[in-house]
User: Fold this.
Amino acid sequence: MRMMRGHLETLQDMTYLLSRHEYEKAAAVAEEGLGMSSAEMHFKMYVGKYLPRDMRAQGKRMHEAASHFAKVARNAAKGDALDKALAAMAKVVKQCVACHSAYRVRRSED
Assistant:
């Protein structure tokens, strides 16, 4: 749950930074918090190694989408259109929604 809250905080920061046209910062936050460069840390420090293969694959797609967002956001900083950065961010959120729609945390009964 802590990892998921961290993901939400990262999405919130990305959104805020985009709204301020701080594309480089949004890219850095995305890559550090959600991108492929953070995937190994999430796997080792959190539950990644315990997840079913399909769920890990879904998570990888989210990390890939976040890295793609970072690339697009950096291009927006060079004068490319904001709408491309927003579309890339929507792909990140789409992966979050897909995973949360398919999987739920269940507590075992003692």
About this structure: The CA atoms of residues 18 and 78 lie 14 Å apart. Residues 53-77 form the longest helix (25 residues). The chain has one domain: 2-102.
